[in-house]
Write a structure and sequence with these properties.
The structure is a single chain. Helix content is about 40%, strand content about 15%. It is an alpha/beta fold. The chain has 3 domains: about 15-150, Rossmann fold (3-Layer(aba) Sandwich), CATH 3.40.50.1390; about 175-275, Hect, E3 ligase catalytic domain fold (Alpha-Beta Complex); about 280-315, no CATH class. The strands form 4 sheets. A 4-stranded parallel beta sheet has the order 2-1-3-4, with helices on both faces. The protein has a 3-stranded antiparallel beta sheet with strand order 9-10-11, with no helix packed on it. It has a two-stranded antiparallel sheet with strand order 5-6. The chain is elongated, with a radius of gyration of 29 Å.
Length: about 325
Amino acid sequence: MEMSQGSIDLRKEKVVAIYVRVSTQEQAKHGHSLEAQYDAIKAHLKKLGIKFYRIYRDPGFSAKDLHRPALQKLLSDASNHKFIEVYVWRFDRLSRKTIDLLEIVEYFKACEIILKSITEPFVDWTTPMGDCLLGILGSFSQMERQTLISRVKLGIQRKREQGLWLGTAPFGYTYNEKTKTLIINSKESKAVTLIFEKYLELGTISAVKNHLNDNNIKPRIAQKWGLSSVGGVLSRKLYTGTIQIGDTEREDEPLRIIPDELFQECQIQRQEQRNLSPKLKEVPITYEKEGCFCYHCGWFCSVEMTFCKNCGTRVQT
């Protein structure tokens, strides 16, 4: 039976731990759900006559690292000797990285806890041969994960080459469910063009942000524009009809919202502003009684400010 928070005398009753993990992608592809793993291990324990166990579940977590809540709890409880054995469906449930898996095994050894896999019973890691087999299994699991990542990246690249769009449609576009492609959103595209034009006219992202908010031109989700959201629009080359595919670019003219010249002029202006950033250049200011005006953009800065709130220029004291 699954144990509650109460304690049991380990000298009288054999208490073990069950660890189950599945990533969303694994469950969708292989059907190795948490419950399927749990039921298989529970049935195995029943055959062994083991009645008491603690269950540790990590749903939707990949095995790329050890930062998983249930795994961390398992390791913590192991150091406190709350069980004497750990059962998993497969060793790669703990980790797909060989070095991490071997580290966990050594940790359990130090805690005098036995680790067992119900589908890999031939691995006895208490022997030198078992250590070797465990390392081999870990290597194969790591290779399987890396291969899966490569296949996913290749699949994404191929879909983009076919003109399909993956993910949420950026501001200025709408996702077409039937064709799996982007189409220009007439209302939002006007705001995109305005952002680029106003940036050249007003000179700073902050001024563009204020103009949009003052004129009640809203972003898609948030109530108001922020510096990062305006900056994100200005840096997106997609608005010129250019799609990034890995290290290459593909032209998709139907997605063009602004001309190349407008985009390039904005990038040049942004670079010029970066060159005037606090790390590269300090701009003198004009002092007043309770503050000062930034010499670069004219923004009033209080005496407590270290940087100009408008353009980021260092306040030189």
